[in-house]
Amino acid sequence: MAAVANFDLEKRTLVIEAHLALYGSLATQQIGERIVSEINRMWNEPKAAIEVDGTLFDIVFHVDFGVYSQNDILKMFAENTSHRVNFIRIEERNIAERSMMGFGLGENSGHWLITDQLGDSTTAAHEFGHALGLPHPDELDFRNSGNPPIMAPRGTLVDADFQWNPLAEPGMTGGTMRPIHRRVWAYEVLNVVKDKILGTTDSFTIGNLSPHLYDEIGQPATLSVS
Ligand SMILES: [Zn+2]
């Protein structure tokens, strides 16, 4: 995903804006509402702030969405020059067998699976993090450090309470992170913006404009307007 960041000097906020342009056979108003509600709630939860030119700015995420027909999405994609817009195809399955974002970190095109309980599982918030350019952590052992971060992948080691099965041995079946326990930590928010800020007069973009949409099963596609 990509996004656009703007300083609001009056409100002392750094606002990160993204629009999810949803398409595909399972893109609906209802799923869109659940996805953006999870992303906004989770990414605003840590109340991250950053000091720039001697002033502390709260970092605020404003993510919204629309549901578009195939033809509308093609036109939008062809004409789009804004990092604010992200093209997300929603389907039942794909060749990767998981929700995915783009062809590299920070891309504004993705293919997400309804079977990942989008909006109720932290998957949408995790994919949003990739879209903002964040990788998985290098170290995948988060025992004794509270809730695992949003960018922790499946298989991460966590305290017993955050495992699929609290009684399982760490790393064995049931002994890895249950994704619902992930939280966005303030340092993850800061990782998105810290190297991009030059001063409060600058707005800046996050991520890249992808050259591709996806076909139904998640292959990069050049789709033609019918
Ligand atoms: Zn991931």
What best-fitting shape do the alpha-carbon axes yield? globular
CATH topology: Collagenase (Catalytic Domain)
In DSSP terms (H or I, runs of 4 or more residues), the helix count works out at 4
Order of helices and strands: EEHEEHEEEHHEEE
- Characterize the main sheet: 8 strands, mixed
By CATH, the architecture is named 3-Layer(aba) Sandwich
Number of strands: 10
Written account of the structure:
This protein has helices at residues 29-44, 70-79, 123-131, 186-193; strands spanning 3-8, 13-23, 49-52, 55-67, 85-91, 100-101, 109-113, 204-206, 213-214, 220-221. The protein has 226 residues and is of the alpha/beta class. It has a single domain (3-135, 186-221), classed as Collagenase (Catalytic Domain). Strands 1, 2, 3, 4, 5, 6, 7 and 8 form an eight-stranded mixed β-sheet that branches. A two-stranded antiparallel ribbon has the order 9-10. The site of zinc ion has 4 residues, from helix 3. Zinc ion is lined by residues 126, 130, 136, 153.
Set down the secondary structure blueprint.
Blueprint: E1 3-8, E2 13-23, H1 29-44, E3 49-52, E4 55-67, H2 70-79, E5 85-91, E6 100-101, E7 109-113, H3 123-131, H4 186-193, E8 204-206, E9 213-214, E10 220-221
Parallel strand pairs: 2-4, 2-5, 5-7
Antiparallel strand pairs: 1-2, 1-8, 3-4, 6-7, 9-10
The structure holds zinc ion (ZN).
